[in-house]
Q: What sequence folds into this?
């Protein structure tokens, strides 16, 4: 039953977590976290910066030296001449020449003279006046002089960060490639594999950006004034672009805290094209599906693991997920976000721990109740200590177990008692009967009859004491006002014949008419006094006197019985009221300790205690000290 | 007197038969409860003595059935080894006339049987002023009791209570019966009142075996004054 319930809870938790992951993943709830992880991990997949790429930046210093933007186009013509002289292999000139300029002819000439120059087009989506898109090309003269025109579009994600670049864009019947794709073709003589792979539906690639400043970069002004070492640009593909603050050609890219200049974005893309290293993020459906695997693995493991092991496994799995997905990204470029899976673990572990803990707490509580019901122990007896509820529960359970151990020990003693003390007299009776024969004189016959009677009486007394003690200790008390002197008087009446027969006097003068009322059970008190008196009679020498007294002492009533006997044997003095306090070593001592254990239990039931002392002559002196009951 | 005895223990049956036959009673014995009930239904007994634990029908079942079904119902004494206070009270409150815990001496059993029989066969009350009970004499004019000639002063109610016990020695009185007869069921009477009166007559009259009487509490039920036989 319990197992079935736990199993259902297990299934429910697993299903709830699975649904939460699928829904969250598809609704893009984890996007922020996923991008955070992606941005941190993406640079790991970037190929080392290609030696063949050099960036020439139009930086703040260039604007200071050369003048305000836009520059006259003969400056660009001069730069192209400079690049030709330096031996550049191809030039990606990331500057828009859309508006006409008087120096266009000179620039076109410079472009034709040197290595192939590729120019960007402005590709606007959507175009003006309801057109799906608009392409703004450089001036016709420049277009004609250029080796090719390419798009430079970046796709910004919803968080404004550039992670993807479109490798091609459709312009009417044909495709416009990306500017860097043209650079790749100039260097390798064929379209890049990534370009070939890019389809109309998926024209974008995810670029593993290096941090800003990873590529070799030269200032435009420095190069133009000839301050750069010769040979630096020989055989290189040069990307010319802006980085000056005022030109606003900067983009946030993954892996970099600072913005990346457009030219460097192109350098990164070209570098990735050359190494053919891009990132392939998994689709959301796929991520949602695989996120369920670690979740259910953990759920299955929960059945077998201890709570500590489960925690360790959960943490280990989380670590492995992060490390594994990052490693996969770094080596293969394949990106499967671990966020969904991590959230799955984060849902499942506390939920399952809660259910488990609650099952344990419930179990403890029901066990305590059951055990209490079975053992007839008072719940008030057990006070749980310790901070929280479960600690208190376990504490109470501990106490119950201790009590049960104690009662098991008592049962063991009881078995000994039954086998020895109860069987003993019966065996003696049988032995006496067997030894009877015809030659017995009537006198002998009388003696053995007396002995048989005594053995039987002993057994009866033991059985009575045993039952009464068990009843007193196991049943709730029904306490009512009792006059102690009256209870004492009844007990004396009971023992009187036996005492008289043994020639022992009972002095009751100090016990009469005291009218000390206490709260207790009348029969238990009478029996307790009777037990004390029977012990006293047995211990007293012939002609001895047993003194009974009932008196008040402040809030307490004292009822005492003392005798002229030898007092308790030394072995029993340590704990006079111990049950089965009868020491086997001290053979010859009558009684099993049940009588005194009953006395102590009866005193406890009245909220008082039983005390043992010795009289001046060494006799036993028992006192019941019980709180007095006053009528309201 | 015709006495029915039911007990599944043969030794006890024989013991009871010999005890009561010596006292001049005619005994019928039964070994289980069903037989006894059949006999009680068609025959008349002056006294029934039953064990608690018996095959086919327990003593308590017989007791309840007899009080319900028989009219007039003979006095019933439970003779059993069940010694628990709750058992004694249950049987007496269910209508048993007395309850004897085995083993008990012959004298006590005979005294109890006689007490029950005396109760059912009405005796003419003595009309004399002074009633003698062993060493005690009760003066109905002065409400005083003499113990060995020593005068003991009692209140009217103490006197009535003591006299009730002395007139019915060995008989079990329930608290309810005593309260009804002596206090006429005064409402809101504290339960302790009776205990206090018992306690007082016990100590004033020095009721104890040394003076030939023993005032016993029947726990959970009531009281009984036992005549104490020194020979015992």
A:
């Amino acid at each position: 039953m319990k197992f079935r319930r736990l199993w259902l809870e297990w299934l429910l938790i697993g299903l709830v977590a699975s649904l939460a992951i699928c829904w969250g993943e598809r609704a893009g709830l984890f996007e922020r976290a996923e991008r955070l992880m992606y941005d941190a991990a993406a640079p790991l997949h970037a190929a080392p910066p290609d030696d063949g790429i050099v960036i020439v930046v139009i930086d703040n210093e260039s604007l200071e030296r050369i003048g305000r933007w836009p520059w006259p186009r003969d400056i660009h013509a001069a730069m192209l001449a400079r690049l030709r002289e330096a031996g550049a292999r191809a030039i990606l000139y990331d500057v828009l020449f859309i508006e006409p300029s008087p120096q266009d002819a000179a620039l076109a000439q410079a472009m034709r003279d040197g290595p192939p120059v590729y120019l960007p087009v402005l590709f606007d989506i959507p175009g003006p006046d309801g057109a799906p898109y608009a392409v703004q090309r450089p001036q016709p003269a420049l277009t004609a002089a250029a080796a090719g025109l390419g798009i430079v579009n970046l796709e910004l994600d919803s968080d404004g960060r550039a992670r993807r670049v479109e490798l091609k864009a459709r312009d009417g019947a044909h495709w416009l490639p990306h500017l860097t794709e043209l650079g790749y073709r100039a260097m390798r003589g064929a379209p890049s594999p990534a370009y070939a792979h890019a389809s109309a539906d998926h024209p974008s690639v995810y670029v593993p950006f290096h941090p800003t400043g990873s590529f070799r970069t030269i200032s435009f002004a420095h190069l133009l004034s000839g301050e750069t070492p010769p040979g630096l640009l020989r055989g290189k593909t040069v990307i010319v672009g802006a980085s000056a603050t005022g030109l606003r050609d900067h983009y946030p890219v993954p892996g970099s805290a600072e913005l990346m200049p457009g030219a460097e974005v192109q350098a990164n893309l070209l570098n990735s094209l050359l190494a053919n290293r891009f990132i392939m993020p998994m689709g959301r459906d796929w991520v949602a599906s695989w996120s369920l695997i670690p979740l259910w693995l953990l759920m299955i493991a929960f059945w077998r693991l201890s709570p500590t092991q489960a925690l360790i496994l959960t943490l280990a799995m989380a670590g492995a997920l992060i490390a594994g997905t990052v490693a996969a990204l770094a080596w293969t470029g394949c990106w499967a976000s671990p966020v969904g899976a991590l959230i799955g673990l984060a849902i499942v572990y506390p939920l399952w721990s809660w259910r488990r803990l609650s099952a344990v707490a419930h179990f403890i509580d029901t066990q305590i109740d059951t055990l209490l019901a079975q053992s007839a122990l008072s719940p008030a007896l057990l006070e749980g200590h310790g901070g929280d509820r479960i600690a208190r529960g376990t504490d109470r359970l501990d106490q119950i177990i201790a009590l049960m151990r104690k009662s098991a020990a008592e049962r063991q003693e009881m078995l000994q008692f039954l086998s020895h003390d109860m069987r003993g007299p019966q065996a003696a009776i049988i032995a006496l009967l067997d030894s009877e024969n015809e030659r017995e004189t009537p006198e002998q016959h009388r003696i053995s009859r007396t002995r048989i009677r005594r053995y039987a009486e002993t057994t009866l007394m033991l059985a009575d004491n045993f039952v009464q003690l068990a009843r007193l200790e196991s049943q709730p008390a029904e306490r009512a006002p009792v006059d102690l002197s009256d209870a004492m008087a009844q007990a004396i009446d009971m023992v009187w014949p036996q005492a008289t027969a043994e020639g022992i006097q009972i002095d009751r003068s100090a016990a009469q008419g005291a009218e000390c009322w206490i709260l207790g059970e009348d029969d238990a008190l009478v029996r307790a006094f009777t037990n004390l008196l029977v012990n006293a009679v047995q211990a007293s020498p012939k002609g001895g006197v047993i003194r009974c007294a009932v008196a008040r002492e402040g809030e307490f009533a004292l009822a005492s019985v003392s005798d002229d006997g030898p007092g308790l044997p030394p072995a029993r003095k340590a704990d006079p009221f111990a049950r089965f306090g009868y020491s086997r070593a001290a053979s010859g001592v009558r009684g099993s300790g049940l009588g005194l254990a009953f006395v102590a239990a009866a005193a406890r039931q009245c909220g008082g205690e039983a005390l043992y002392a010795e009289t001046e002559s060494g006799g036993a002196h028992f006192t019941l000290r019980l709180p007095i009951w006053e009528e309201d | 007197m015709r006495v029915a005895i039911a007990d599944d223990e043969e030794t006890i049956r024989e013991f009871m038969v010999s005890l009561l036959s010596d006292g001049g009673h005619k005994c019928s014995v039964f070994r289980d409860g069903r037989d006894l009930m059949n006999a009680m239904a068609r025959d008349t007994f002056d006294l029934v003595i039953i064990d608690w634990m018996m095959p086919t029908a327990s003593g308590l079942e017989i007791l309840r059935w007899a009080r319900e079904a028989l009219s007039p119902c003979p006095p019933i004494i439970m003779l059993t080894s069940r010694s628990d206070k709750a058992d004694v009270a249950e049987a007496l409150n269910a209508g048993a006339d007395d309850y004897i815990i085995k083993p008990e001496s012959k004298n006590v059993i005979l005294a109890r049987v006689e007490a029950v029989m005396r109760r059912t066969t009405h005796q003419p009350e003595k009309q004399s002023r002074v009633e003698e009970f062993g060493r005690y004499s009760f003066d109905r004019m002065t409400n005083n009791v003499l113990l060995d000639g020593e005068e003991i002063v009692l209140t009217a109610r103490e006197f009535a209570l003591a006299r009730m016990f002395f007139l019915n020695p060995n008989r079990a009185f329930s608290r309810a019966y005593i309260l009804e007869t002596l206090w006429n069921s005064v409402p809101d009477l504290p339960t302790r009142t009776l205990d206090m009166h018992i306690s007082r007559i016990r100590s004033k009259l020095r009721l104890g075996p040394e003076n030939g009487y023993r005032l016993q509490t029947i726990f959970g039920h009531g009281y009984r004054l036992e005549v104490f036989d020194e020979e015992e």
